[in-house]
Amino acid sequence: MPIGPVEYIIVGFPGNEFNGDIVPALEKLVESDTIRIIDLLFISKDADGNVDAFEFEDREDLSPFSGLSQELDGLLNDEDIEMAAEVLEPGSSAAFIVWEDRWALELAEAARGAGGVILAGERIPHQIVEDALAQLGRD
Fold first, then answer.
1. C-alpha distances in angstroms, 65 versus 5, 58, 77?
2. CB neighbours of 98 closer than 8 A, spacing ≥ 6?
3. Which domain holds residue 92?
4. Max Cα-Cα span within the chain
5. pTM score of the predicted model
6. Total domain count for the chain?
7. Which tens digits make up the pLDDT trace of 16-69?
8. Is residue 88 a part of any domain in this protein?
């Protein structure tokens, strides 16, 4: 099966407050075939540092996420949960989203077909980009 680049983000929510406000943006990206959600998991850390991981169907407050289909539900494992928990502050939660960049599928296939391999890549944090643009006077 051809597949584009796959990436993940961990979106933190202080105070364990999932409100579903990010769902419309995710739905729009899925509907436009910009991304394909591969897996989606929620993680919370209580004030004592105890970690819990759960799916949207496990909690009523996560029902807004139910319309987001997942291609490989269960891909994320205990090691992924531990990694996400390390970046979570006590008393907060996170959505751990793994997606395929469908917009880059054609480029990825062309690169593979030409014998190319990705040697490096990284998402540049938003604040770093904002700071660089401000220094250039382009904010």
1. 23, 11, 20
2. 6, 7, 8, 37, 38, 39, 40, 75, 76
3. 6-105
4. 51
5. 0.83
6. 1
7. 777 778 899 999 999 999 999 999 999 999 999 999 998 888 877 777 887 786
8. yes
